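Researcher: We're teaching a course module on how sequence relates to structure. For the next exercise, students receive a sequence and then see the predicted structure as tokens, so they can try to spot secondary structure elements on their own. Here is the exercise chain.
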Amino acid sequence: MMYIEGMTPKKRLMKDVPGSYFLFGPRGTGKTTWLDERFPNAVRISLLDSAIRRELRAFPERLKNYIGLHARDVTVVIDEIQRAPGLLDVIHELMDQRNGLRFIMTGSSARKLKRNASADLLAGRAIKRLCHPFLAVEMGADFRLEDALQLGMVPLVRYPESGSSQEVLKSYLDLYLEEEIAMEGIIRNLDSFARFLQVASFSHGSVLSVSTIAREASIKRSTLDAYFDILEEMMIASRLPVFNRRAKRQLIGHDKFYFFDTGVFRTLRPKGPLDNPHELDGACLEGLVYQHLRAWNDYLDEPNELFFWRTKNGVEVDFVVYGAETFVALEVKNSSYADKKDASSLEAFLSDYPEARGFLLYRGERRMQLTSHVTALPVEAFLKELTPENRALAEE
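Model: And here is the predicted structure for the students to work with:
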């Protein structure tokens, strides 16, 4: 459960698993809160505490003192493990020496761990789990589609301990720039990176053209590639590949790009008198569906693969969910009205893949059969019903 004074407690859909594991997720998504509630008696070490961080960076072996020199059958929670990756050598040693000693290590960036050999050593002993912003079902009666499109679903933003959600959202990226990027010395030129973030925001929900972004942001292509890697390693954004299995048509080769949260995207995106509000809302809605699909998929016991589909002639389906029991194509429409014409892209996909099922998600309130193969679903209801236990996407 998650609780802040004045709010209804929220039950998260993340699952605990046996043994040790890494729990990765962007800042403010509720990793620490969930672990506090799930393991109230755990030994907790927060590397956000500068004194503790300095000590354990300098003397990683002192981790044993925090745990107890002979402790067994204890759960140890280490927050923000990427801030002292040298601890992984000691953790590996303790896992080998003491039966029952369990480590749960949170992180808001996988960048430094990927560059640490000990992280690979732990790979077989500590699996990786992910924490996402809220799903609609986790917010329960507090979820309203319009609010989600404006503010996103990050718990820190939706239930701030002080200030308004808008104020917290505006400062959220500063938190990343100052605490995650500047402090760790990842990027020397923060102004260049901030400019890149704004230019990249115009690609949210679109096919990614790295050369166009490099030109508009006045950044070298090699630097831009590194910037995109940083966004993904810090879980601020992700790329969605093209579905090309058994392809019958010529497909594009570029990925689509999304920021991890609609509210973060909306805050980053520059706005002016020439902007079309409907276009911005459409990008937000598509991004909101994507972040729900990602969270839902990562919380499954057997995750699927997520794709989009687009031909070189411009016929596109927003999302394809493909797995052992699931083959679904989803199109998102930012309108309260839908008819047969809106199903044309889905019909094209289904003609190539008759094994799949097609759904159009729209802003209306009625479930409708648009064609013999395509069903229109109210997007708000779809999001509220999307849970790991709900096998609707896998049903025949």
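Model: If you want an answer key for the exercise: The longest helix spans residues 277-298. The first strand starts at residue 20 and ends at 24.
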